[in-house]
Each structure stands twice: as C-alpha cells, then as structure tokens.
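Annotated sample (chain length 171).
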Amino acid sequence: MAGVFGLAESRGTESDVHDRRASKLNVVFILTDDQDKRMNSLQYMQTVQDELVKHGTSFDRHYCTVALCCPSRVNLLTGKMVYNTKATDLNLPFGGYDKFISQNLNDKWFAPWMQKAGYKTYYTGKLRNDHSQKNWKKAKAAGLVGNNFLIGPGKSQVHSLSTNDKGGYFV
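Output written by the structure step:
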C-alpha cells in the first residue's frame, strides 16, 4: 500500500506567502494499495500508471506494518498498529468496515481529525473492505462532508454511494 500526502501552495510575492500562511493549505491525500514491486502488480493498474507513475510519483522505499490491504489502511488512517486496532484481516470477524466500527475507530481517523482542524473533507473510492449496501447505513463514516464510495456486495459488482453534508444518500 502506498499513500501520497500533498499540500498545495502556489508561489507569489512575500505578502501573498504571508497571507497564505495565515489561512489553511489545501491537502490532497491519495491512497492506493496492492502495489507489490516483486510481483510487478503496477503493470496491471493502468490508471495508477497514467495518473501517478507517468507524472513522476513512485515509492521506492515504503513501509507498512502489515502487507494486507484492510489492516494496512486502518493502520495508515488511524496511526495505530494492527494489534491496537484488532483489524487483522480483510473481512469479519477480524477485519472490514464492521470491524472498524466495532472497535470504535470511526471518530479516530484521518478525516475527523482534519475536520476538527477546520478542513472540509471528502472521500472518493474504496474506504474499507466489506463496506457494502448491507452496512453503509449502520454507521456513516465520520468526518466527511461528502463522499463517493465504491461499495459492493461482491468482487464482481461495485456500486457508487454518494453522500453530502446534509446527510443525504444517493446510490
């Protein structure tokens, strides 16, 4: 798994720089997973190739505490080691979205922290394994003013779920 954490700031005059420092910077956090160099998995990910690699983004030295997507995502997004989150697998009973919620981690991850710091947060793509049509209404992912999740009941079927800061859901 690899992630990109970017801060956007443009160049300008000295007074422009001072004004920007007084305001919040834009933050873009891109999370991709399943990038195994030995198995050359990136060759099968054309969008990652086109949008990241061809523009100079690569991760020659990256580290993860567990080489399994769901536990690794939970580790990265919470800053907690796997033995503290108890999310050790892809699906229940040891992993997935329901496990994340049952371990009371929903308000203890990157998005709520950024929101508490005054940022508007939006998420698009896959959040966690087992985030499906069956459980997305049980516990709304905290800290997001909007999202466009990829959810699905199985590997062959993916649905887009969008919400807004008014609490509305769109499938």
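Annotation: The chain is about 25% helix and 20% strand.
Annotation: The helical segments are 14-22, 46-51, 69-78, 82-85, 97-102, 110-116.
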